[in-house]
Amino acid sequence: MTGPTAGPDGVTPEVGPVVPDYTYNLEQTLSRTLSPTISRALSRQPKEPKPEQAPIAVAAPPADKGPWGWRWRSADWFITAVVAWSIASDNISYAIIVPVIPFHLEKLGYDNLSSRTGYLLFAYSGGILLATFPVAYFFHRYRWRRGPLIVAVFIMEASFIMFMLGNHYVAMICGRILQGMCSCVVWTVGMALITENIDEKNLGKHIGIALTGFTLGTTIGPPVGGALYKRLGWNAPFIFCIVINAVDLGVRLLVLEKRLMHNWHPTEKARLEVIAAAEAAAETQTTDTAVAAVPEQALTPVTPSRPATPVPPAEEKHLSPFGVIVALLSIPRGMAALGIAFIFGLMYGAMDASLALHVNDTWGKDSETVGFMFLARGAPEFFIGPVAGWVADRFGPEWLILPAILINLPWLPLLTLRKSIVGFFIVFACTGFTENAINIGASIELAIVSKMREGIGSIHQFAALNLAFSVSLAVGSVIGGQIYDHVKPKGWDVICWMSFGGSILLVFPPLFWAGDRPIGRRWRRRHAEAEAETASPTVVEK
């Protein structure tokens, strides 16, 4: 190290002690020691504050923007009410001829009345069977809900005119097939409208309320049909159905799907955009945190040996109609629910095909009395729908299905008694009360099961349930009609005991498979634990 040099005048300036130059750029030091994210943050220069500006006034969306009444038209209660009314009008169309058709066929000169009535009920179920697969497959891929429901009403109105004016038996068969196809749309697309627009935690309650439409239809249809036929003739019941379905068309036109609200109302669209922005910001923050925690050496880009192949986005899985049935049957809970619907349909169809003739042959009563018998059966069922849905939501479907089956068992043999028509009314009402609870429990159970397998949508679950019920209803109608005609005078007794045997078979599937924790498995587990405690050696303290 050399000393200080002299200036131009030869005088050496006075300087302090020489200090080595250890001054470094703080930014370079931080870039070597800290992560790149923090160094970039420190290197940013503070921006000069911008002059304050007056806030820009944003005009609120106009009050008349969007469809009229969009809030209540897309509300949970309105969607459920529309589906319940659609189910009611559909079941009125099915049940209104049950007390009427045997007497009308007799006037037209036909014989084997119970068998021919069974074939007409079979035609209705056949229409459901024909439409179930295409409806479920098409409307699962293309999620239209209100449109198919509206078109189905117009076809239903045409079928009433065909059935009313066509006195030939073949024309009646064709009209019933069309009615069954429209019924399929209600029970698949309509029920899917509920499951796709209502929160899952309240799903059981709303399904229970919607299925009260089934009770309403089967309760109102027969007495109204019998009374109108007796007083005003053959055309009157079908004119009544045309009016009921016109009202149904009006409410179906009003309903709005929640998934389409962001296209119609700016506040709903803004709400969805805010949610999407918040999710994107949270995802970006998580990514930045992960990058900041990585050392600088790990951030060095690496050249891949071969170009990366882009991963295509995952496509929604679509099962064929047959694949949906196989998928549901592969789940024990799904198999139990479909089995319950199948046996329930057998019992229902067999009794519907022969009840009017049994009452007429035993007590000499006409169609009006048979109609009031259905009214007595359906009146208690109005209360079971919401209660059954609440029980399924609160305790599980297993605590609804199994007790209802056990309560239903003793009433079926009592239907064979012939001493009192009043007693028959009471017993018949008790069977309807429990059977409705079983039907609601199976519907809720299948709605839960459908979410366990990829490729099964909400429309698939009700299509499968509708298929199982319609096939068994068709088979039961034919079997019931044939048994009553060919096993006289004990045909009705055979049908009742057959239903009793089917109900015994119904006990086992829900006992071991229904619900998240089936009752039978709980008992077996507790029994095994009790045996293990008994078999374990007892340690005696000395």
TrEMBL record:
Q: Which residues form the signal peptide?
A: none
Alphabetically list the UniProt keywords: Membrane, Transmembrane, Transmembrane helix, Transport
Q: Which PROSITE patterns match?
A: MFS
Which Pfam families does its entry note?
Answer: MFS_1 (PF07690)
> What GO cellular component term, any one, is given?
membrane
Single Gene Ontology MF annotation: transmembrane transporter activity
Q: How does it sit in the membrane?
A: Multi-pass membrane protein
Q: Superkingdom of this entry's organism?
A: Eukaryota
Q: Repeat: is it a keyword of this entry? A: no
* Keyword Transmembrane found: yes
Q: Which residue range or ranges hold the Major facilitator superfamily (MFS) profile domain?
A: 79-518
Q: Where are the stretches annotated Disordered?
A: 35-64
Query: Where in the cell does this protein reside?
Result: Membrane
Write out the transmembrane intervals.
77-101, 121-139, 151-171, 177-195, 207-228, 234-255, 322-350, 370-392, 399-415, 421-442, 463-483, 495-515
Q: What is the protein's name according to its record?
A: Major facilitator superfamily (MFS) profile domain-containing protein
Specify the species.
Answer: Vanrija humicola
